[in-house]
């Protein structure tokens, strides 16, 4: 436990949470038109040195960022299953819950459960509610869910012709245990997000006390809107609404001068992060073009902000950026999967 005024750190561990297959032409510029890549949908376990609100006897708060692919594909709506048919092969073993229980590499020899998702996970944060990130929320029966503003409205009603309601499950996450981050006061021109849902008091009571005072603040001339999750600077929520309404990233302080930036779906290919490729645009079937992002200019801005932040911190702090579908990162970093850490 850090003393007063001392910096607080979190640990971050990667979790396998299913795989899906992406056609390159929908994601990057100058794509091979026929190339398809099977990529992970990564989840992350974040551990903070504090007693969870609902379990004061414990000294660690366990948080999971993103839940990956549902273990049981029939849990998706028919329209979602139609979409998922175009992302095959899809694998769901191990899913997020199995990875938490047994760690990387599947079942531990002793069969010992490392973490029980029903009992031991206090908070689930979803980067956004696309099918390959919502996972199986019912596995996390005692967790509070924290999501971007407008997420519950998006799940219930969809958002316009490219994001119809049938591509979401209205009851995907438990509303009585869900808290939306505050709405961000100013949005880019042409960006109209779904309505904010105020938190139920029961849901708020499951979160750290800091949740009662959450507000968006700029950080380091790079990110216009960040929110201090625990109130101690160890874990920041970064507003990155370009990919989907309510999309958020995390910035975790893991050691002195060392940060991990979890980028969710701010891009789907590490070549975009490195500046080697751009965001693909393609026919939207309605006489216009679209990308995989709800607002392509905002998605580009988030990537620029991340690059600006990494550059500004370079030399003093090390910042590692990891996006949800980076298969190259997964291959290079197997020892950093739970119970290993980043
Ligand atoms: Zn997505």
Helix/strand order: EEEEEHHHEHEHEHEEEEEHEEHEH
**Share in helix:** 10-25%
- Which strand-content bin applies to the residues? 15-25%
CATH homologous superfamily assignment: Ribonuclease Z/Hydroxyacylglutathione hydrolase-like
User: How many structural domains in the coordinates?
Assistant: 1
Instruction: Please provide the count of β strands.
Output: 16
| Strand arrangement, major sheet | 1-4-5-6-7-8
From the 3D coordinates, which CATH architecture would you assign?
4-Layer Sandwich
How many DSSP H or I helices? 9
From the N-terminal CA to the C-terminal CA, the straight-line distance is 20 Å
Main sheet: strands, sense, barrel: 6 strands, mixed
The gyration radius over C-alpha positions equals: 19 Å
Envelope shape: globular
**What is the mean pLDDT?**
93
* CATH class designation: Alpha Beta
Q: Identify every distinct bound molecule in the structure, by name, code or SMILES.
A: zinc ion
Uncertain segments of ≥5 residues (pLDDT<50)? none
Question: Can you give keywords for this protein?
Answer:
single chain; alpha/beta; 6-stranded mixed sheet; Metallo-beta-lactamase, Chain A; binds zinc ion; 9 helices; 342 residues
Structure description:
- The protein starts with 10 loop residues before the first strand and ends in a 10-residue tail after the last helix.
- The chain contains 9 helices and 16 strands.
- The protein has a single domain, classed as Metallo-beta-lactamase, Chain A, CATH 3.60.15.10.
- The protein has helices at 78-85, 96-102, 117-120, 131-134, 151-157, 201-205, 270-273, 296-313, 327-332; strands at residues 11-15, 19-23, 36-40, 43-48, 61-65, 123-125, 144-147, 178-180, 217-219, 223-228, 235-239, 248-255, 258-262, 282-283, 289-290, 318-322.
- 18% of the residues lie in helices and 21% in strands.
- The chain is α/β, with parallel strands linked by helices and 342 residues long.
- A hairpin with an 8-residue loop joins β11 and β12.
- Zinc ion (ZN) binds at residues 128, 130, 243-244, 265.
């Amino acid at each position: 436990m850090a003393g007063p005024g001392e910096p607080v750190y979190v640990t971050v561990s990667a979790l396998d949470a299913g795989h899906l297959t992406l056609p390159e032409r929908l994601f990057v510029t100058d794509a091979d038109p026929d190339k398809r890549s099977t990529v992970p949908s990564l989840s992350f376990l974040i551990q903070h040195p504090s007693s969870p609100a609902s379990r004061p006897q414990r000294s660690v708060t366990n948080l999971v960022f993103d839940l990956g692919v549902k273990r049981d594909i029939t849990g998706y709506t028919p329209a979602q299953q139609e979409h998922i048919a175009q992302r095959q092969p899809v694998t769901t073993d191990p899913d997020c819950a199995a990875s938490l229980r047994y760690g990387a590499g599947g079942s531990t020899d002793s069969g010992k459960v490392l973490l029980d998702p029903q009992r031991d996970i206090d908070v689930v944060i979803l980067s956004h509610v696309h099918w390959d990130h919502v996972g199986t929320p019912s596995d996390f029966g005692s967790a509070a869910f924290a999501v971007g503003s407008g997420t519950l409205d998006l799940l219930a009603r969809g958002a316009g012709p490219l994001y119809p309601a049938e591509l979401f499950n209205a009851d995907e996450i438990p509303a009585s245990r869900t808290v939306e981050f505050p709405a961000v006061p100013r949005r880019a021109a042409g960006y109209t997000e779904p309505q904010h849902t105020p938190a139920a008091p029961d849901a708020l009571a499951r979160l750290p006390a800091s949740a009662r005072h959450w507000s968006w603040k700029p950080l380091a001339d790079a990110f216009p809107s960040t929110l201090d999750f625990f109130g101690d600077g160890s874990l920041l929520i970064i507003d990155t609404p370009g990919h989907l309404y309510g999309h958020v990233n995390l910035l975790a302080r893991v050691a002195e001068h060392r940060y991990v930036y979890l980028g969710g779906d701010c891009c789907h290919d590490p070549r975009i992060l490195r500046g080697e490729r751009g965001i693909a645009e393609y026919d939207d079937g309605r006489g216009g073009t679209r990308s995989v992002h709800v607002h392509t200019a905002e998605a580009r801005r988030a990537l620029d902000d991340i690059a600006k932040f990494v550059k500004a911190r370079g030399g003093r702090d090390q910042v590692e950026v990891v996006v949800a579908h980076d298969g190259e990162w997964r291959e290079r970093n197997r020892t950093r999967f739970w119970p290993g850490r980043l």
